[in-house]
Amino acid sequence: MRKQAGAAVLLLATLAAGVFSSAGAAFAQEQQPPAADDGETVAPADAGMNAPKLEAALKFASERASYGVVVVHRGKIVAERYWNDWSKDSTGDMCSAQKSITSTLIALAIEGGSIKGLDQSAAEFLTEWKGTVKEKITVRHLLSMTSGLHSSRRSDLFDALRSRDQEKYALALDLDHEPGTFWAYGNPAYTLVNSVLERATGMSRNDYAKKALFAPLGMNHSECAWSVLHERFRLKHHAILSSCRDMARFGRLILQGGTWQGRQLVSREFIAQATKPSQHLNPAYGFLWWLNGSDRHRLPYEETDRKGMLFPGCPPDAFAALGAKDSKIYVVPSLDLVVSRLGGAATKGRGVAPSEFDAPFLRMICEAVER
Question: What domains can you pick out in the chain, each with its CATH number?
């Protein structure tokens, strides 16, 4: 049993690492979605990239369990590499990088009128909380990891992933702190964002995602599905499976302020809010996005801040969707740059997102941009 428990802890360290415009009206009108747009593929030099430096970054990724990397600069694919028998159509579990997509789905539900706004009580959808102190928890609190719900250390996460009813498990979490007064990264609590989305829209997350985001954006290799994380320990989670190209396409949507082929798919105002500090407790966290640029940051399952930027040496305006197994979508607006990565865990360190892979890899890519 001790050996099994030790393996479980090691596994969890890897897994642990989630004014509006007229976009909702456009969605409601059931317009014909635009064709998929992967971005034109060009030679690095033709898009203002230093080819040798970019090649060095790709080599770095290849030596660290990467299966796929896509680099997009100025709207054009300047590098696309696959290893381990992967191709542009291969898909992988985004792990917690999915959280940033879920944040965007909540934006679409707000714009479409299914959710009144960020400050609406989550209990209006999670009716099990009606008449309890948890009525104070808002949609904003859930998106910013400040709900005050039990912060889910690794042992709690193990129990949640093994639960036959993960929603029921999350709904029963204790309220440890007054909502809005404490930041704590909690995966079980994050599952309730999906519950709010499904109850608000009356659709499964996969159906809503395909209709509101994946189809209009041309993310044809993406789906929301249950993913088995480990058969032996009976661990599973509600994942988003995607390809590197689809992830890069989503990153481009966010970089472009929610516009796609001339159409405003997602509110520019929401994206601006989502990719800025959502609270003062951890300035490196937006609405389920990780942010660079602050002089301090707090990582998952740590109780004190670390000094400095999240990605030292990288542009301050960079932000990212980060997941376990080093699933990544990096966005750097000042460089007009998007990078996606899927594969295995790239480092032997913490095993959670963010990881020690982020800063050196992103810095090498950014240094390849010729300004």
Answer: 2-367 (3.40.710.10)
